[in-house]
């Protein structure tokens, strides 16, 4: 099946639009899946996300991250939302998730509204995918159409959550391999990591970076040295001290979805080792070129980010397509 996706980037009154084909092997998703069963679903999610992001702009990054962590573990099936029970070991306590993932209550909030209007119709997986798109738009990012029709899984995978998700200190080659495993290219990887332009990071995830090669990648720039001193005030060197302290990964425009994160990498100031490696790693010949392109051309970044988000959102859980369900409560399998 081939879907024609149209993307409109809203900037002032100028709205450049891109169209592209998203090809896949018998993709079951369509743009009008809920046209007759829940025609208001997109409006409901958009309006609620407007309130949620207005309450705290950081909620945008939280929802995008939650979507990413869902899709990288047995496909985009809402498995990350499942609470642990006596019969199900969930993904929330896996090491990449336990100290970083939030947003579950946001999804609960939207789900309750949708269930009151269209009970038993809209999957949690679709809800999360649509919410991630709307979150991006609400902080200045691009628009893309979201194909829908996902089913919620009845299972979760603690082990895959532990192994499939990239970590902040992971090497570039290993991270590229994890994206390839999901059917995502190097260009997809560099574009998707651009979402860190609105992200926050905990001290525990950037301590090794700021007490490691930060000075080397910034070439001892005095301005960068001042920034480093601020980071070290936030994050003490001793492990366990200030682990949960947070700071923005983009220290220039932390609440605006733009290409600033790539300029940060060009300056050698990437907060996470895994991010900075895309520009300074000896293995980063291809990624360095892409980072430079997105730093120079924000339209190219927006276009590729939109394509890559659709591509990631189409990662399938073939099992849930066969015996999946529409959960009434995103935290629990239907009984």
Automatic annotation (TrEMBL):
Q: Report the record's disulfide bonds.
A: 38-118, 71-76, 124-330, 203-235
Its localization reads: Secreted; Vacuole
Q: Enzyme class, one word?
A: oxidoreductase
Signal peptide location: 1-19
Annotated EC: 1.11.1.7
Q: What is the top-level taxon of the source organism?
A: Eukaryota
| SUPFAM superfamilies, A to Z | Heme-dependent peroxidases
Q: How is the cofactor bound?
A: Binds 1 heme b (iron(II)-protoporphyrin IX) group per subunit. Binds 2 calcium ions per subunit.
Query: Residues that bind heme b, according to the entry?
Result: 196
Q: Molecular function (GO) terms listed?
A: heme binding; lactoperoxidase activity; metal ion binding
Q: Which cofactor does it need?
A: heme b; Ca(2+)
Q: CDD domains from the entry?
A: secretory_peroxidase (cd00693)
Q: Which GO terms describe its cellular component?
A: extracellular region; vacuole
Q: Which residues bind Ca(2+) 2?
A: 197, 250, 253, 258
Q: Which family does it belong to?
A: Belongs to the peroxidase family. Classical plant (class III) peroxidase subfamily.
This protein is called what? Answer: Peroxidase
Species source reads: Brassica carinata (Ethiopian mustard)
